[in-house]
Amino acid sequence: MLDIRPLAETGRDAFEAGTHLAPYLARLVRRAPQAYSLLQREGATELAAHALKQAKDAAALEDREEAMTALRQAKLANHMAVAAMDLSRSLPVHDLTGHLTGFADAAVQSALTIALRQRSLTQDGIFVIALGKMGAFELNYSSDIDMAVFFDPAVFCEGSIEAGDLASKVVRDAMRILEEDTGDGYVFRTDLRLRPDPGSTPPAVSTQMAEIYYESVGQNWERMVWIKARACAGDIRAAERFIGMLEPFVWRRHMDYWAIADVQAIKRMINSRTSASDLADTSPDLKLGPGGIREIEFFVQTQQIIMGGRNSFLRHRKTLKSLDALVAADAVDASVGKELTEAYEVLRNIEHRIQMLEDQQTHRLPSDEDTRLRVAKLCGHDDLAAFDRAVAEVRKTVHSHYRDLFAEEERKHENAVQGNLVFTGVDDDPGTVETLKAYGFSDPSRIIATISNWHRGKTPATRTARGRGLLTALLPELLTAMSRTGEPDMAFTRFTRFFEGLRSGIQTLSMLANETSLLEDLVTTLAIAPRLSQTLARQPGLLEALVTPSGQEYPPALSRGADFESQMDEVRRWQNERAFLIGHRLLHSRLPAQQAALAWSDLADHCVELMSEAAAIETARRYGPQPGNWMIGALGKLGGRELTAGSDLDLIIIFEDDGDAASEAGHWFTKFAQRLITAISAETAEGSLYEVDMRLRPSGRAGPVATSLRAFDRYQHHDAWTWELMALTRLRPVAGHDALGERALEVAHDAIVNGKPDDERRADILDMRRRLWKERPPRGEWDLKLADGGLVDLEFILQQEMLLCRRADCVLPTVIDAAEALGEAGRLTTDEVKTITSSFSFLQSIQQIQRLAVGAELTADQFSEGLKARLALAAGCESFSEVESRYRSVRKQISDLRCKKIGTLATDS
Prior knowledge:
It is an enzyme of class 2 (transferase). By secondary structure, the chain is mainly α. It folds into five domains: 11-91, no CATH class; 121-250, 2-Layer Sandwich (Beta Polymerase, domain 2); 257-545, Nucleotidyltransferases  domain 2 (Four Helix Bundle (Hemerythrin (Met), subunit A), Up-down Bundle); 566-577 and 590-753, Beta Polymerase, domain 2; 758-901, Nucleotidyltransferases  domain 2 (Four Helix Bundle (Hemerythrin (Met), subunit A)). Helix 8 links the parallel strand 2 (145-151) and strand 3 (190-191). Helix 29 (593-623) packs across helix 38 (830-853).
């Protein structure tokens, strides 16, 4: 183990030697000449006693400025005395840190006394708790001091209603006395952020509020902080009562599995996978880096937290005393305890000497070799290379023992993140910032702040200890998965929206903890598919469908006794789950695009069937028995079984009355149609099913929502426009009376096969395509439907050929079937059939992913890198650039075929 050697035998000589190596020590001589004279005359011990007395006496000075000067002079004298004792090795490091802490206690008490006196207040009911290193008497040479200030609202300021406001003003005044950098410097940098919920609470926290906070959302890392809590200023009796009140929070007699797992996860996040190069670094952070002081402290504190509730003799504030107690309890091997004790003393000694250089709160050995050599010489070593090797050995020893802590648990996390992921405490952990940067996050501080708020119970999912423990366990895998998406910022933003929308979260977090593949799927989905992520944010319970047996694959049998609205909600719940599963499988390449289109369409068919059945029962209940038969026909994408995520449903409703009262039958079926549209499209507590488009019915918006078969026959044969017959090529019965559906299909086919001469039909189709191009131009390069050479052109080509073929057996609603039938009929060549079918398959694969992920975003610059990769995978391409190249080629082929079969898009082309 590295030997820290004295620079000289006496404090005064050691300090003198130190001034030639540490600029700050040289400045001390100039800034505090009286203290230096006292050091020379009487030695370091007397100077230290003088500094402590001067800090205490400052409290009695009436003039605030005079008191502030006295405190600063006392601090300079104390720093001089401690440096002299440290560099001469006349006191062990734990006595030196104790002396530094004792001086801090005196300074804080004086500052509080002065601040109270200025407002004519006493210290009754207000107190300061020392935390962290200050609480354990382990302050380092240039340490900040961690404290929390509390007041008893029933005692302080005699219980007045202004107590809280006055307490916070007193704290601000006291901290200013300590912190303000005057011509004489400062006394201490103070940190009050270890108080309960520092972002939302005032500097002085009421004991009532603190008790509620720790009982409800206090975290395990805060319990570790409070291991070292100690009354240091103000009303000491009140402070000790408060610490006693928190004892059940800090020292739990029984630790449940989740609390222990949370403590283990906190440990795992620190330097979870450290490489040999990290430990060989000649400029390490001796506090926060691998093999550093924090690893020793966590080695001790994690075991104290787990075992200290049942074993009171483990409840020491000081790190080394606690380590000795763990050895005595056989929780730590004696040899391990000895090595960690020696390493701790070495690291603390080096830490002091680093800080003596410039009085900076730093723990990192300088990267500059000349400056680092000065640190080595302050440690009594002239050989820098040997010093560097010795420091590395110390750190390797520490990290080896730290790594072995909870080793069995660690084996379950072999794929742990590289580097730190620490979200405890109040400062951004430097290692965590670097880890998050390496993972591709652009603003690590935002990530750290958000996760810290989750840990403080500021979202429903983490308001219980178990929720917070589950989150801690999940974080490494979660953030790693976000990094792998290539869109970590977007993934985190969308996960935040999802996570903060959970009502409780325990069930969801438990699923994610137990199903690592589910976590990966969720993060990827959120990153590349905002449309799906919005669905999950609204209905996080859908996630459960991914891990439960698919018992709901088939449509539910509607509860006959349930009312119409309840039946609507029942179908919506089933549809939401099935739609999410289809989308999830499609996005993750577990369902090819063509099968996805069929799955979406089958789902819609089932919903239409279920809702039409419910609408018929409800209409009969209100308006009497059904006066005949009805059928629901699908048109458009649903008719062609080509639905995508978010598609509307083009429907037509045809009925055939029983002949008794045609007008009354029309009224009944109109009411039925209205209820069906409501059943499908109305928004309920469970959402809606689909938007319904009835504009393709006879006479469009002007026609009745339900049409009799006779009226349908008459309209299609005598009044239908050519474009309406084109739409009719995709008619497919989906619900209702089977025989009526077949007759409606026969009427449609007969109207398509007969009618206007070919020349008129050709002219109508060309005119319509040009008007559509002019009135509804494509909205972007990736408008797969309306682009020149897009899906609309494919439909126009096929539908024109069906209208000109004059054969009912060639009128088929699906693209592939229609193209092949037209090829067999001689209307399309073999090459044309191949062009149409291959082009359609390519465009469909792209459109399925595009509509699912981003909906109507139609320019490639809006596609994330993750989405581009999914588009390439769906299209069978190596890269998105290959997708783009093929897309251009496919569009040109279709455009050329449309020009050949129908004509150009503009008259001046």
